[in-house]
Specification:
Growth Hormone, Chain: A; 3 domains; 18 helices; 465 residues; single chain; mainly alpha
């Protein structure tokens, strides 16, 4: 039990951190005189680095030992949290957030692997269930906890405790891991695909930096070549991975998984869904604490309603009949899109009618969970056994990449409208989120209609039950 608590505490730190800092955005603007671009990069860089390095973190766990990488990751995450919490400027904070992403990428891939190694039978099933709960509610819980911490105004810079709280918790997890975790056997030494990770990071940065900085700079000429570099870096990544595979080495991704019917469409649906959520989260945070003058604690209570809807659906969708479960990935984004646009319409009228807004937020959380959890489960069933790990990694990368682009694109739409004095800024942002969720429905439909592998009759039977 103690071992499981150690692992889940590390996972919770990484899962909650991004959404806690989203709630801190208005406080950052006031304390560090951070611009809209600074806020977007503060949120995005953590996720960019996390996304680019998480697969390398998994490979390093194989090569150097899972316990060692978990401890290195929590140490790096804790140290970066201290630097970020004491940052004297937005630039230092942005760099610290990138270093937090390094720590998260080293730490989180080891959690599930260590659970699988250290638990068996029914105990493993319960441990994986607890791990799933952390993944399901961690991000949403971060919104609530962040709002309460920042609202307490423990320091002159109210946002700082949201990062500094990671320090004592991280130290405790590090010491407990040193005493309670056993090292795992190491795989045969092989070269890690650093070049592949660099190309992933370049593709993400080429999209996020111009979307974040271009608005404030008046969309200068360099924005467009930078955006064009994103697909070029993606193409170079695919070429590089194929070349590594042809040489008999281990690529960052086994790209053949994208040829499995339904996987590519499902991964794109996850990216669109998470992008809509991340952009909406930032926009709503700025609207509540800016236009409506809500305190962080009040905003945290508002987010708790969304988190409640997300948690309820995440923990109960498996109890539905098989026919209905198969439609959830299509129904979920539609419900989420309708709820978010409803919130935008409420905001455009001014004020915040608590009952109506709470109902819409709860529905948005339900739709979000129904769109993500059943689809992720379906994709792991679609993949042949040898590629399940690749699908899991691809799902994590797509969710993180969608988060980054959503903050830059949808958050940028909100900031542009708000800077221009538009009272409809949140309405525009929610319409942009709807624009991402509608194609997510189409992609999810394609993924759910793909046939299960013929070689997996047991899985097919499980899906049908």
């Amino acid at each position: 039990m103690a071992l499981l608590l150690i692992l889940l505490a590390g996972q919770a730190l990484a899962s909650m951190d991004g959404s806690m800092m989203a709630v801190a955005a208005p406080s950052l603007r006031a304390d560090l005189h951070a611009s809209g671009a600074d806020i977007q990069l503060t949120l995005a860089l953590y996720v960019i680095v996390f996304a680019a390095l998480v697969v390398i973190g998994a490979r390093l766990g194989d090569l150097a030992g899972r316990r060692r990488m978990f401890m290195w990751g929590i140490a790096a995450f804790t140290a970066a949290s201290l630097v970020g919490g004491l940052a004297p400027s937005a630039a230092v904070l942005i760099v610290a957030r990138g270093l937090q992403g390094v720590g998260a990428a080293l730490m989180t891939p080891q959690v599930l692997a260590l659970i699988q190694i250290n638990f068996t039978g029914e105990a493993r099933a319960r441990a994986i269930g607890a791990y799933s709960v952390i993944l399901a509610v961690g991000v949403a819980t971060g919104q609530v906890v962040g709002g309460l911490i920042i609202g307490a105004h423990l320091l002159p810079g109210a946002w700082r405790p949201a990062l500094l709280l990671n320090v004592p918790v991280g130290i405790a997890v590090f010491l407990a891991a040193g005493a309670g975790l056993r090292e795992t056997p190491r795989a045969p030494r092989q070269r890690v695909d650093v070049a592949g990770a660099a190309l992933v990071a370049l593709a993400l940065l080429a999209a996020v930096v111009p979307l974040s900085l271009g608005r404030q700079a008046g969309w200068p000429a360099w924005v467009w070549p930078s955006l064009a570099a994103c697909p070029v870096a993606g193409w170079a990544f695919v070429r590089a991975e194929r070349r590594i595979r042809a040489r008999g080495r281990q690529p960052l991704f086994e790209l053949s998984v994208l040829a499995v019917p339904g996987v590519a469409a499902g991964v794109l649906a996850v990216a669109l869904l998470m992008g809509a959520y991340a952009g909406f989260l930032l926009s709503l945070t700025l609207h509540l604490q800016g236009a409506l003058r809500f305190g962080p604690a009040h905003a945290g209570v508002v987010f708790a309603v969304y988190a409640a809807g997300f948690a309820v659906a995440s923990l109960s969708w498996t109890r539905l009949r098989a026919g209905l479960r198969s439609q959830l990935p299509i129904f979920g984004p539609l419900l989420m899109g309708a709820a978010l646009t409803g919130i935008g319409a409420v905001a455009a009228r001014g004020g915040w009618p608590a009952l109506a807004a709470s109902g819409l937020l709860f529905g948005g959380g339900v739709g979000h969970a129904c769109g993500y959890s059943p689809l992720a489960s379906r994709l792991t069933v679609l993949a042949p056994p040898g590629l399940v790990t690749e699908v899991s990694g691809l799902l994590m990368i797509s969710a993180l990449a969608g988060n980054v682009v959503g903050v830059a694109a949808i958050g940028g739409i909100y900031l542009s409208a708000a800077d221009a004095g538009s009272g409809h800024a949140l309405e525009l942002a929610t319409l942009a989120a709807l624009g991402a969720l509608l194609p997510a429905c189409a992609c999810a439909a394609r993924a759910t209609r793909s046939r299960l592998p013929a070689a997996e009759p047991l899985l097919a039977q499980t899906e049908a039950e």
